[in-house]
């Protein structure tokens, strides 16, 4: 599916973005599409499905299979100068001063002056007019009225794309209460007032499939989180106002979306139903993961009926669409789905990668371990591990680098110095992370 619409766009304060986590997986894309659809049908036309990264191969397979377009890309939700500017019409430099005076008299504080091509030439302010008047008095008999360009003064200028938070200091300390905003080419776009810059509008987000800001779209800490629909551990900051917050320990966020649909007696169209089903099958590894809940079966069964598809057969087909190790870069394998934990006061990072068969592990092992060691040093980790899960057989291996006593304490079958056979462990959050935590706490 072409992703050619991925050019830079500003977020829109009139929309509510339903958005999954960074490095989106199938459940994250599916639940954003499904939940935005449900909201749109139930009185929230402003809901928009969004993603903050490129979908992987498995997700693209699911989208193609059900002919569903991916959610819109949104890579940053911090307020920019674009979000606060007022599009005041500029006056020409050779316009008579009366043109600016009329507007000042009407209550504007700064009248932008720009050439015909948009090149800004400053602003006319009451103070600037007073200064020009004082100059002309000092100059004696010259009674000719100046033009706007002669009276215009420079004020601090910002690019519309720049983040307000990056320039808060400059805005606070400026002698001016209004600022010129220009586009990428330096051409006039509008005026921003200090008052508005100190309280810019905030993007409205509903987080799906995550609740921790560290996993959210860039700028989320400056946004307004108005809802959370998730199935992961809590790691969210406090909000100013109460918000709908659902974190339910089921196998996928898509399950929660399907349940919301059913509770409201809304049946999604086939593309949405198919993608939601894919989210469930992907996160539960076709129900083989111990994170699987009875409710995941129910939701998948219902969605399978809606899109008239054999759930189990399709599930195997979907899992096989995951790419192998050799087609991915080492960085992508290690960082693609990596989460940091604090265990016994130590920093631990565990990544997970899905494969269809372990045959590529031996030739990739050394390269992966080397980069893991780099990450461990750079991020000051006590342990870094990569869980390689074969989604076809439901078995995993673990590569691990860390403090010697920690690696030695891992309660798994060692097949190599830095490699363990995890047998049928497939869940990082439910099986691996607790086992690693127990091991670390046992030696402290
Ligand atoms: Mn999920």
Helix content: 25-40%
Strand content: 15-25%
Name the shape in a single word.
Answer: elongated
Number of helices: 15
**Structural class, judged by helices and strands?**
alpha/beta
What's the average pLDDT?
A: 92
Low-confidence region ranges: 1-6
- Main beta sheet strand tally, sense and closure: 6 strands, parallel
Distance N terminus to C terminus? 50 Å
- What's the count of strands? 17
Catalogue the ligands: manganese (II) ion
How large, in whole angstroms, is the Cα Rg?
28 Å
SSE diagram, text form:
Blueprint: E1 16-19, H1 26-41, E2 47-51, H2 57-65, E3 72-73, H3 97-105, E4 111-114, E5 120-124, H4 126-138, H5 148-151, E6 157-159, H6 168-173, E7 178-182, E8 188-193, H7 194-198, E9 204-208, E10 224-230, E11 245-247, H8 253-263, H9 270-283, H10 294-306, H11 311-319, H12 330-335, E12 338-343, E13 346-355, H13 361-379, E14 383-390, E15 395-402, H14 404-409, E16 413-416, E17 419-423, H15 428-443
Parallel strand pairs: 1-2, 1-9, 2-3, 6-7, 9-10, 10-11, 13-14
Antiparallel strand pairs: 4-5, 7-8, 12-13, 14-15, 15-17, 16-17
Outline:
The chain is of the alpha/beta class and 444 residues long.
Can you describe this structure?
By secondary structure, the chain is α/β, with parallel strands linked by helices. The protein is built from 15 helices and 17 strands. The protein has helices at residues 26-41, 57-65, 97-105, 126-138, 148-151, 168-173, 194-198, 253-263, 270-283, 294-306, 311-319, 330-335, 361-379, 404-409, 428-443, and strands at residues 16-19, 47-51, 72-73, 111-114, 120-124, 157-159, 178-182, 188-193, 204-208, 224-230, 245-247, 338-343, 346-355, 383-390, 395-402, 413-416, 419-423. The protein has a six-stranded parallel beta sheet. A six-stranded mixed beta sheet has the order 12-13-14-15-17-16. Helix 1 (26-41) runs antiparallel to helix 9 (270-283), helix 8 crosses helix 9 and helix 9 (270-283) runs antiparallel to helix 10 (294-306). Residues 1-6 have low confidence and may be disordered. The structure holds manganese (II) ion. Residues 27, 209, 231, 252-253, 283 line the site of manganese (II) ion.
């Amino acid at each position: 599916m072409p992703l050619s619409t991925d050019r830079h766009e500003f977020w829109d304060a009139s929309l509510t973005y339903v958005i999954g986590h960074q490095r989106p997986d199938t459940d994250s894309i599916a639940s954003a599409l499904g939940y935005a659809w449900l909201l749109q049908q139930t009185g929230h036309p402003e809901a928009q499905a969004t993603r903050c990264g490129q979908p992987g191969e498995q997700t693209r397979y699911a989208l193609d299979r059900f002919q569903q377009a991916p959610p819109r890309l949104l890579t940053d939700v911090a307020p920019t100068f674009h979000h606060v500017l007022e599009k005041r019409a500029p006056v020409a430099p050779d316009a008579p001063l009366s043109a600016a005076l009329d507007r000042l008299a009407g209550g504007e504080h700064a009248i932008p002056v720009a050439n015909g091509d948009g090149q800004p030439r400053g602003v006319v302010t009451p103070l600037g007019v007073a200064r020009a008047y004082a100059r002309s008095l000092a100059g004696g008999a010259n009674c000719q009225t100046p033009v706007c360009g002669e009276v215009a003064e420079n004020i601090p200028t910002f690019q519309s794309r720049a983040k307000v938070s990056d320039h808060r200091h400059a805005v606070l300390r400026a002698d001016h209460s209004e600022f010129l905003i220009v586009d990428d080419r330096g051409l006039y776009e509008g005026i921003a007032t200090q008052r508005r810059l100190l309280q810019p509008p905030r993007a409205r987000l509903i987080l799906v499939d995550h609740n921790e800001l560290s996993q959210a779209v860039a700028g989320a800490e400056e946004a307004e989180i108005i809802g959370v629909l998730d199935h992961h551990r809590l790691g969210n900051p406090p909000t100013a106002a109460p918000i709908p917050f659902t974190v339910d320990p089921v196998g996928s966020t898509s399950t929660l979306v399907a349940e919301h649909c059913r509770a409201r007696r809304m049946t999604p169209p086939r593309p949405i139903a198919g993608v939601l089903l894919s989210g469930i099958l992907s996160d539960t590894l076709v129900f083989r993961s111990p994170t699987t809940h009875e409710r995941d079966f129910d939701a998948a069964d219902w969605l399978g009926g809606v899109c008239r598809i054999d759930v189990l057969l399709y599930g195997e087909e979907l899992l096989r669409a995951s790419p192998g190790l050799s087609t991915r870069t080492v960085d992508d394998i290690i960082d693609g789905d990596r989460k940091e934990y604090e265990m016994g006061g130590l920093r631990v990072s565990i990544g997970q990668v899905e494969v269809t068969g372990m045959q590529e592990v031996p030739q990739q092992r050394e390269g992966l371990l080397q980069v893991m060691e780099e990450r461990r040093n750079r991020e000051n980790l006590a342990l870094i591990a990569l869980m390689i899960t074969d989604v076809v057989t439901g078995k995993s291996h673990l590569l691990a680098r860390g403090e010697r006593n920690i690696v030695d304490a891992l309660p798994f079958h060692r097949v190599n110095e830095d490699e363990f056979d995890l047998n049928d462990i497939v869940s990082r959050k439910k099986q691996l992370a607790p086992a690693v935590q127990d091991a670390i706490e046992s030696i402290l």
